[in-house]
Design goal:
Layout (H helix, E strand, L loop, with lengths): L1 H7 L2 H11 L28 E4 L15 H10 L1 E2 H7 L11 E8 L2 E8 L13 H12 L7 H4 L5 H6 L4 H13 L3 H27 L14 H9 L12 H12 L3 H8 L4 H12 L14 E5 L2 E6 L6 H5 L2 E2 L2 H4 L4 E2 L4 E2 L4 H8 L9 E2 L7 E6 L13 E4 L6 H9 L5 E5 L2 H9 L8 E4 L7 E6 L15 H6 L9
Parallel strand pairs: 1-12, 1-13
Antiparallel strand pairs: 2-7, 3-4, 4-6, 5-6, 8-9, 10-11, 11-12, 13-15, 14-15
Length: 489
């Protein structure tokens, strides 16, 4: 009902308000193969391709990291997802077009989860996805050097023993505590560079954002710049003066003041860093001889070429947690750490996998991305995709931008964006109430089942509305099915 109200109560009027306020915009039209391009000014691709704005996507984005909603959405263009492709695509646990099939069996105080990948599922390089790929993806998420580590491993039988590298977990935790109390130079360097620096960088970005908005004017009163405000509130030593130093120099110097005293940083940010710090101490400890005594996960095993079994130490586990992730092909990302003879993962190599995902995105969904530019991500069709469709050609995603609602509309009217994830805010709702309904045929809004405050805004003169994935439960699912979208001829 809310969706209908949004559409019928005058969303077009909202767009009309913006169009009226846009200053003399020139329609650039579509031109094939423009050269000497600036991603902001020209459309580089021939007719038939799509330019999409999904939201801000950082240069550090990876399908192995919990990022912004925009980042979570775009991975669906390239990578398969067991939860989405088995559960949402078919609406059941089996189906001829499903990429994955799974079965649940409860035994005493455990849950046995059997997962099978379709023999028809292939990567963009034509390689068959197998049980080895499934195993690899579970192992890298349990790797102490990975992003999820202990939180993912804890619910799998034998997962914690694998994570800590021992069957005597209590003693291992005690040892880690001793290391953190007296960290050597190597551990100190890891904590500063991987924990303190990134956290201070995020906080500095928040301060910069605050200084750019008028509504925070009173809050920042008395400070001449973001650097001055940040230095006053975040420096470990309050006497620190930023002077004319760069942002990078300020963050680096303040990070050096904290050193391994991440507990002091916790008081400023309100976050807990104990688990992260323990992870770095553990990764160093496991490098030492004879400290890693558990090489595999007891509750994770290969059944046949396309099937694995996962034993979860809970009768009512959160299944989505163990099924909802982007599947990375072993041959593209995991060869360095994979022991082919035993089908297990050598701990500590998850960092390498993470770095690889920031350079290319090659999976088993509709697209792949070999070049990831600072301004634009370019996606090409995967002709080996399970449900390959010759609809939209290349897809270009605008990157590292945080456009306002007004800017999104302007760029779509100027034909620089064809589809955009569009936030529907209270502000825009009040604007609609102030305007009478207008008749604008240039743009239209498409809602998924789950999101009512965010929709997909598209250009009706170019995007074929009948090919938009109907009945999508989420915007993330929408991106998974973007390969079926056509353009109007």
């Amino acid at each position: 009902m809310k969706k209908l109200l949004l559409l019928e109560a005058g969303f077009v009027g909202f767009l009309l308000l913006f169009i009226i306020t846009v200053v003399q915009m020139s329609s650039c039209g579509r031109k094939a193969q423009l050269s000497g391009v600036d991603a902001e000014k020209n459309r580089m691709q021939p007719f038939g391709d799509l330019w999409i704005y999904a939201g801000k996507i950082s240069l550090d984005a990876s399908p192995l990291k919990k990022g912004t909603e925009a980042e979570e959405n775009i991975w669906g263009l390239c990578f398969s997802n067991i939860f989405l492709d088995a559960e949402e695509e078919t609406g059941q646990k089996s189906g001829k077009n499903a990429a994955f099939f799974y079965d649940i069996e409860k035994k005493e105080k455990k849950t046995c989860l059997t997962i099978r990948v379709s023999s028809s599922l292939k990567t963009a390089e034509g390689q068959e996805v197998t049980a080895e790929d499934l195993l690899f993806n579970y192992y890298i998420r349990c790797d102490p050097a990975g992003e999820e580590g202990h939180s993912f491993a804890a619910g799998i039988e034998g997962g914690e023993e694998y994570y800590y590298g021992t069957n005597y977990i209590k003693e291992r935790k005690k040892k880690l505590g001793e290391l953190l109390k007296k960290p050597g130079k190597e551990l100190e360097k890891m904590i500063v560079s991987n924990l303190v620096l990134p956290e201070l960088t995020l906080e500095y970005e928040w301060v910069e954002n605050m200084f750019s908005k008028e509504k925070y004017k009173e809050f920042r009163k008395g400070y001449q710049s973001a650097a001055e405000f940040f230095s006053h509130f975040y420096a470990y030593r309050t006497s620190y003066q930023p002077g004319k130093k760069t942002k990078e120099e300020i963050i680096s110097e303040i990070a050096g003041q904290y050193g391994t005293n991440y507990h002091a940083l916790e008081k400023v940010t309100g976050k807990s860093y104990q688990e992260k710090a323990e992870k770095y101490a553990l990764s160093l400890l496991l490098k030492q001889k004879k400290t890693d005594m558990v090489k595999s996960i007891r509750g994770l095993r290969k059944m046949d070429a396309h099937t694995i079994r996962l034993i979860l130490s809970d009768t009512e586990p959160d299944l989505q947690k163990y099924l909802d992730f982007w599947l990375l092909p072993l041959k593209n990302y995991g060869v360095l750490g994979w022991e082919k003879e035993t089908s297990v993962w050598k701990k500590g190599n998850a960092v390498h996998v993470l770095e690889q995902t920031k350079k290319s995105m090659i999976g088993s969904n509709s697209y792949f991305c070999r070049s990831m530019g600072e301004e634009t991500l370019t996606f090409c069709k995967n002709e080996y995709a399970l449900n390959f469709r010759k609809e939209a050609g290349k897809i270009y995603i605008r990157r590292n931008h945080a456009y306002s609602v007004r800017e999104i509309v302007e760029k779509m009217l100027d034909e620089k964006i064809d589809i955009a994830v569009f936030p529907y805010s209270r502000e825009s709702e009040s604007l609609i109430k102030e305007r009478k309904t207008g008749a604008i045929e240039k743009l239209a809004l498409f809602f998924t089942e789950e999101e009512t405050d965010t929709g997909i805004l598209y250009r009706t003169d170019y995007v074929n509305a009948t090919t938009l994935p109907q009945g999508c439960k989420s915007i993330r699912r929408f991106f998974c099915e973007a390969g079926r979208i056509k353009v109007n001829e």
